[in-house]
Amino acid sequence: MFDGLMWCGKLSSTGMNPDSCPAWDECDHNPISSFWKKASATFAKSSCGIVKVMLNGSADGGVARKESILRTVEIPSMNQNAVSEIQFWIMDNVNGPDKNSCNTSSVLELKQYIEEHKLAFSCVDNYTPARFLQCMENPLDPNCNICKL
């Protein structure tokens, strides 16, 4: 609902100036990052039970950067008495590549970070029900064959 929304003020007036918004990393309190951090904290504080997090296993680098919203806002905001477990689904693109999985160093480091916050952790590589959703666009792709999953 809020993807692509831009709202920035003008220094000389109370009007909006969507053409000169600072980028996410240009200042600590820019309107876009402030909004998403607050929304993410609120969402994380209200989470309970098993929290499922889908991450891109085909992405370059680790699955969750140290400065990511997941690490800096969401995990610290979760209530350890309400959240029984954080379960990661490391999903590769249908045709790969497989760059990250449950046993790669970035996921294991993230597991340690989660456990430091007194939250339980589990991980599933290419969770089959999520793979079915990925295959909806191209169900005849050989990697979408149910018998091979």
Automatic annotation (TrEMBL):
Reaction(s) the record says it catalyses: NAD(+) + H2O = ADP-D-ribose + nicotinamide + H(+)
Localization annotation: Membrane
Keyword RNA-binding carried by entry: no
Top-level taxonomic group: Eukaryota
InterPro entries in the cross-refs: ADP-ribosyl_cyclase
GO biological process annotation, one example: positive regulation of B cell proliferation
EC number annotated for this UniProt entry: 2.4.99.20, 3.2.2.6
Keywords, in A-Z order: Disulfide bond, Glycoprotein, Hydrolase, Membrane, NAD, NADP, Signal-anchor, Transferase, Transmembrane, Transmembrane helix
GO molecular-function term, one example from the UniProt record: transferase activity
Pfam families, per the entry: Rib_hydrolayse
UniProt similarity note: Belongs to the ADP-ribosyl cyclase family.
Protein known as: ADP-ribosyl cyclase/cyclic ADP-ribose hydrolase 1
Organism of origin: Hymenochirus boettgeri (Congo dwarf clawed frog)
